[in-house]
Structures are given as structure tokens and as C-alpha cells.
Amino acid sequence: MIRDPRVSRMAMKITSWTLLLSILTVGRVLSPLTAVALPHRILLDTDVDTDDVFALLYLLKLDRREFDLKAITINVNGWADAGHAVNHVYDLLFMMGRDDVRVGVGGEGGISEGGTIYPNVGGYLPLIEQGMTTTGYCRYRQAIPVGSGGGRLDVDTNFGIRKYFLPQGRRKYTPVQQATAQQVMIDVISEGPTTVFLIGAHTNFAIFLMSNPHLKKNVKHVYAMGGGVGANSSKERCCVKGSSSASCRPQQCGGATGNLFTDYASNPYAEFNMFADPFAAYQVIHSMIPVTLVPLDATNTIPITKQFYDMLEQNRSTFEAHYVFESLKMVHDTWLGDRFFESFFMWDSFMAGVAVSIMSRSDDSNGENDFAKMEYMNITVVTSNKPYGISDGSNPFFTGRKIPKFHLKKDGVLSGHVQKSLRDPFCIVENRKGKCQDGYTMETTGTEAVRVLVATEAKPNKDSSSPLNKEYFVSFLEVLNRPQHSGRFSFAKQFPNYKEVYYKPDLSSKMLGKPVVFDMDMSAGDFLALFYLLKVPAEALDLKAILVTPTGWANAATIDAVYDLLHMMGRDDIPVGLGDVFALNQTDIISSAVGDCMYIKAIPNGSGGLIDSDTIYGLARDLPRGPRRYTPGNFIGYGAPRNTDRPEIRQLSALEIWKTITKKTDPRKKITILTNGPLTTLAKIILSETDPSSLIQGVYIVGGYISYGDEERGNLFTLPSNGYAEFNMFLDPLAANTVFRSKLDITLVPLGIQQKVASFPRILEKLYRTRRTPEVLFAQQLLSRLQQLQKEHDRYRHMGIFLGEILGAVILAEDYYDINSTMRVKPVKVLAPGIESIDGKMEIDEEHGKPIKVVEDVDLRAYYNAFADQLGNEKQSAVMASFYAQKKLWS
Q: What are the TM regions of this chain, as residue ranges (predicted)?
């Protein structure tokens, strides 16, 4: 759709250029001097950030006879979380009709202390932190914002655009069955010569090279977006993706070659993709495989311009063009400050364009291409800082080892201080820019120098009369709007009878029961508990709101699954608030967008951990698609520079929801709170109120461990040093300490009684014998999957943790369905000294402990009956059984 006469002229030029290119390509293929040209086989390794999506769609639009995208592997220690990223990729491929493209993510392999690399290392951690599991410290990743404002939450949801726009196909993440990143790399590269595109951290590919040196010969070339050699350091170019106007102050980043806007004070040299795993990037650059690098030097010369933005808005003749514009518009509308057009660049898509332009020419082209000026440089990737050979505890490759890991050279360039965290004191020099260079792609000489082809600048548009100032802008718009290889449909167009519906019950004639707020961290058990709360008659329990605490077993973007479950149950009226993404005292002292992972590091990233919780063990996409979703929002009325299209649907915070419901609730009825995760949100509520007990009737807390013997232990199976804490207390011990020092009436459902009711056979037996309501079927499927995984796979031994989480909801509603619980008052306190081996420990303290009610026993038969009977009750049952039922309705 072309509205501007300038665009019409440009479209004609683009068409002519495309025709000429086609003729030249045909001529090249039919040349008698060459055999039939085989397509370039491409493997894309991506962290699925918004600009990565632009690159992927650009590649999918190219002629497969010349450029054949064979596989996508997902880098999961960068800007996106594994479960959300892999399903995002599946949906993009489904839209584009490319379900043939193989997709790999994660893996459970490890690296031993001795440096042995086992099969299928998942890439969840940088190589320097990788051990034998998927748990570990966020040494580099903590520089990436976690929540909204361009952080991982926005990337996981693509700023809320992904859920409402992309169609949903059959492919999805499924535990154990999902192909790993290493499996896909090995399979694809084994099949023949392959060109590798790296547009995230280099972890996956470095592991592949270190584990499969015999396959290196099949890698024709590596094209990577990342690094900053240092040719550009203007003040505007320091303002990078996700940064606010405050983060872009010229005095803060003048002279920086990198883009770590969250930590310029420590490291002004690194770019995010290289910084996420410097040792991996070093391995790739030094692999002796030809490398072409498109660093910040080049991408800083191609910021999104107002003219390009407007022309993209006017030229959206394909679904993929629509998706790109809607994504870009949301980034623009939520950008803090007025510098979007100075600080959002064509990062990864520009690299894709440069790469395919080079590849379309002969192999000895010396980097000739249409879009970027190129230059050979001698570079290396800095992994540690001088002086080399020191032992200050920062470098696990050397610290405490007679023989360095991977047999690295003592006193070599890899043996210095490694940046440990944000604001590493070693890196900060008073009144000067930071001195750490981890991840810096530095020009050098001597034995460390590697000759790399480097893009230095985006080429200007050959047509000086065009409103588009860069040649690549012309190509990007033309390729995206080509009718060939176009997307088939959006979500709304996937179904001929699609209709957005809100389900809200009429409760006006009912005498509602006690008002309840459910605070959940979105583990598998929490979803089962939510089903139960929704099935208790409203006359007994009035569920006022759900507060999501993303400091536990799931990432913040999983809030969309909560919305879908509520839609399934006909409760689109229940508000959902999103809590803080960091535990108390874990937020960075300078930027609240980033912080430490001292506690959340205890949760596995892989199997049985975040990837499974974020997808409800592969079942989240079986839920019907609800109309509500996470949506970032700007509103001028709150001081933002601009409104998003629908600021009224922006995601509200947990505290905003709390304030709203306390104002609306009958003051004669205090609110009861059930918490099923870390106590971060509850602590924030307590700290925000002058007198919390005037609003809160009582709190039911599922969690904590009270020891009755020396041989008993908590459930921190990932942290052997802490034998007495339970996950919910450990994940935010300061919040737990705050809650247990408050004046609130507390009922504790501790680990001991949870373990007593954690029998998969018994609860499944009851469910199989009850009515087959949709919620029973979903619960059966989830519980059966957890049971099977626990039996068959070592990484899932802890599945009983989630089964016990249902108990709090059943006890809360005991006035309606009695399970004969017995309780005893005990004086309890929670320790939070900031010491890993002690934090979260719960003690009986007659002098300083808070008297609370502790659940010690329940009637097991009554408990299992209560859960099964309520879910099987046809009253307050699901109004939309599943996504498959929804598809039938819309088809």
C-alpha cells in the first residue's frame, strides 16, 4: 500500500533493481563456466531480540535457490529466555511457511572441572561459568535489563506484539523432545558446507567448535554482528538499544567503543554480543575459519531514520512487513526519551544484508557488497585484563588450578582479571572511564592478531534524491514487501471466523465469599493451585486479583499463560499485576533495570527449570488464546514523551493492582493473601502500607522449611552449601525476613507437609475417577507429564516440589471443603544475612521469632478428594476447553 508519490517512485526503482539483479543472477547460474550453482546453506544462531527477528525475516524472504536457511539455533544467555524464544521462532517460521527449518535450543550437557565437554551443552551460561548443570552465575548477563523498558521481558514478548500478531502452528517446545542447539549444529554442518550467521553471543558455536574439530572443515564462513573496534565513538552513537535518555548522556559515554549502556563505568569497550561470552567469541575469532564482522563501527552509521520509519509504515504489503513495523513502532513508542531515531540501529538485519550481498558474489570478492564499506583488520577478542597471570579469584579457568582449564597458557592473555559483575571495583577508575575490556574486539598485532574482514560504514543510497539515506534501507523494504516467499497469515487471518472475546461472569446476584488475592511465581504447581481457587464457589472464595512474582520459577513473560488460563475459565475480569523482577536488595544501585542474580541462580535454566516453567512443560500453548497479554505502555499523562496506541491496556504492576482492589473492596472485609512463591511482592505491599494489617485479614504462605532432626534437609538441590532453606524463602530471603517481622497473621504451609501430599499416583488416581472437565484434563496431562519426567530423567527428580504447592489453595478454602488440617503456633524467624549458606533458613526462636500458625498435618484422603472433586465439578468450569476447541470455533 503506497500513499506517498516519493514512495511510488522508489518502488519502481526497487522493482527495476530487483529485475536487474534477477537477470544477473540467472546469467551467473547459467554461465557455461560453472556447474549448476548450489544454494548457500545457512545456519543462523540468534538470541531472538527484536532486531534479530528483522534479520530472520529478511533471510526467509530470499530466493531459496541461492540462500537456503537450513536451521536456527537459539542463544539463551543473552537478550531472550529459552522457552519464550523457541516458541517465538516456531511461530515466525509457521507464518512464513517454513516449518522445514530445524530449530535447536538448550541442552543438558556440561563441562567438567577438568575441561571435558559433554554432549549437548545448553549454552545457558558463558563458558567461564559452565559446570555440569544449567545453574550458574550471571557474570555477564546481568548487564542486560530484565524487565520492561527494552529488557528480556519485552524481548520475550516482542513488546506484546508476538502474541496478538503471530499465528500458532503445531511446533512447540516439549520437554526432552526438543532438539538441542548442539544437535542441530552437528546435524546441519555434517550434511555439507555451511555458512554460519552469529547474531547473539557466540556460546553455542564455540562449544560446537571445541567439541567437533573434525567438522570445522564444513564451515565455509562465519558472519557475525558484534563488537566495536573503535573507529566510531561519537556521542550519539553511544546511545544504544534499550537505553533511556538518562543513559545516553554524552558525558557518560563519550569515547566509548562499546554499547554496555548499563555499565559504562566499568567497561566502555565491549558490545553486548561479545561481552555475553568473551571466551566463546575468542574461540570463534581464533578458529581459523574465515570471519566477517559487522561491528558497532558500521551499525552505528545506520540508525533508523524518521524517513525510513515513515516509509515502512506506508509500505506494508506482506504480513512480515506488518510484523516488523508493528514491532518497531512499539519499540519507538516505549522508548524512554526522544532519541529513538538517534539510538536504535539496524544491527543484526544489516549484518544479514551485508552477508548475503557478499555471498551473492564470487568467493574471492574481498567483501565487495552493496551495503557496507569493508576493510581487513587484525583483531582479537579481549577475555581478561592486565596484569596477566594474577590469581585474584576472578578467573575460574586459572584460580586454584595447577593446570589451567582447557590447558590454557599460564600468564597468557586469557589469564588476567575477568570482570566479575556490574560495578566490579577492579574495573572502576575514579573520575575516568572504566578500564575493563572483557569482550572488546581490539585491533592488535603479533601472535594474537587474526585477519578479519570488518564492515566499517554503511554505504549511502546511490539515489541521492531518495528520502532513504542508506542503500540497505532500500533493499530491506523491497525484500520485506516481495510477494514471493511471503507470510501466509497473521493470527487474526489464520482463522476465517476469528473473534476477540472477553469472558466475564455475572456475579451481581451472588453473596460473595472472603476476598482473596493469589500471589504466584508461575511454577507448574501454581497453575494447578489457580485452577482450584477458580473452582471454589464464588460464595465461599472471591478471587479478587492475581499478583505475579517473577523472582522464582518462571520469567516475567509467562504472565501471558496466566491470562490464557483465566480466559479458559471464563475469568477475564480478574486483574493480573506484575511484580518486581528482582529480589529485594538485588537491584543495581545505579540502574533499576539490571541487578544481581545471587538467589535466582539457584533455579535451573534448563530441564526442570525456567525453560519448562515458562512453557508449563510444553502445555502452555494448549490453553485457549485469551485477548489479554503483557503489553508495555507509555502514557503522556504519566510523564511519558508519547502515548502507545492503547495505553489503557498496558501491563499494570502488582502494587497498582493492589492499590486498586483495596480501594474497591468492601472495607468491612479484609483481604486474605495466598503466596505460592518468593515473598518479594508481599514484602513490597507491606513496605508500601502504613498499616498493612488494617487491609489484610491474613496471609497463607506456601514455603519454608522447619527442621525436626539433624538429617532432614531443605530442598535447595542446586545449592548443597545451604542445607536448611526452602526455595521460596531462599529466592528472596530479605523479603521473607520482612514478612515474618510484620504484624500480619501468618499461616505457614511448610515443606514437610507439602512433601507428605506429593504423591503423583494418588492424585492422578482421583482425577481419573472424576468428571472429565477441561480443567481436569489439563491437570491430568500436566501431572502425568511431571510424573513421567520424574521417573525417566535425572534432571526432573524434583517434580514433587510443584505437586506440594497445591496444598495452600486447598487449606485456604478449607471452610468450604474440610481436609482436617491441624496446626500449631510456633515462633519463627527467617535469616537473611546475605550469606548463601544461611540465607532463607527458618528457625524456631522463642525470644525473637514471630508466632505463626504452622500446618503440621492433613487428612490425605480428604485432600486428594477435595482437589479432584473441585476440578471435576461442572459448576464454574471452563468456558473454552483448549486452543484446539478455539480453532474449531474459529474455522
A: none
